[in-house]
Amino acid sequence: MKNMKNKTPIVIISGFLGSGKTTLLKRFIDWEFVRGNQPQVIMSEFGDFDIDSKIIADERLQVTSVIGGCICCSNRDELLVSLQRIIAQNPGAPVYIETTGIGDPAGVLQSISSVLNSNVLINKIIVVYDTSRHGNNHRDYVLIEKQLMTADIIVLNKTDIASMDVKKTETDIATINPTAQLISAVDCDIDLNSVLKGATCCFAGSKETVNTDNYHSFAFKIETRILRDKFEQWLKSLPEDIIRLKGFVRFQSENGLFEVHYSRGNYRIKIFENTEWMDATLSIISHPISSNEILKGFKSCILD
User: Fold this and answer.
1) Mean pLDDT across the chain, nearest whole number?
2) Looking at residue 227, what is its pLDDT?
3) What mean pLDDT is predicted for residues 97-108?
């Protein structure tokens, strides 16, 4: 997205927990740097620990993190103040806003509407959808549908592990939002340049914001190295109420810090390439559940 003199283009990236929003955001950031732009990023974390900004950390990048709530409702004022500061300090720089996974883009639009003018515009609202969960999102359907209704572009992600025919998924999603452009992808690998071309966003979604009371978050630091095989067993045993887990761990007999992502039965563990020292931390978002029971299970990962 080229800087248009002093016009500030804003891209909102949304999507349910574990769909791949941060992966897409990181692709946009790298793409902007290649083009010689200086992207500005606002990230929302529902939990109290800031995980995602560490995942996309880059010495060239300034990230504003809004934690402990949702920028579509409880943290609206903080979002607005942050955006106003960014626009004043970096006129014309592209701005990317990533909502929390239980955020509603409609609420974000309402939050920032007062700063939108001829020089500050919404370029696109992009919603990332996890096709591997299609047909299995009954409990969260209302929220996911609201996110989809708001989108200009819907990235149908994780098609490589989708059990349902992607064409059937496309048909179902098009019924919810017939005007959105649908793009199938693996690991959010899409043509970023073409995505941002064309008309700016024309919001036609629901104006009712989402109630986040049905979602809880908790996080904890890990003071010791853990057993990898026990940790993976624990991940596989997590109940359906655990929607999303992410963070960093250190393993016995392995060097380095490892990045962990879990989303309802699927998980990924990889070495974290940032060399900055960070605490091992896990953040969990769930439907109402006893955190004590989850922590009790995690203790099996610690060497006696």
Assistant:
1) 87
2) 96
3) 88
In percent, the amount of the chain with pLDDT more than 90 equals: 55
Does residue 137 have a pLDDT over 90? no
Instruction: Tell which CATH architecture fits domain 8-195.
Output: 3-Layer(aba) Sandwich (3.40)
Mean of pLDDT values over 108-132: 89
Show me where the domains of the chain are located.
8-195, 216-301
CA distance linking residue 230 with residue 300, whole number of Å: 7
For residues 170-188, average pLDDT? 96
Q: What is the 3-state secondary structure (H, E, C) of the chain?
A: CCCECCEEEEEEEEECCCCCHHHHHHHHHHHHHHCCCCCEEEEEECCCCCCHHHHCCCCCCEEEEEECCCCCCCCHHHHHHHHHHHHHHCCCCCEEEECCCCCCHHHHHHHHHHHCECCEEEEEEEEEEEHHHCCCCHHHHHHHHHHHHHCCEEEEECHHHCCCCHHHHHHHHHHHCCCCEEEECCCCCCCHHHHCCCCCCCCCCCCCCCCCCCCEEEEEEECCCECHHHHHHHHHHCCCCEEEEEEEECECCCCCCEEEEEECCEEEEEECCCCCCCCEEEEEEECCCCHHHHHHHHHHHECC
Q: Does domain 216-301 have CATH number 3.80.30.20?
A: no
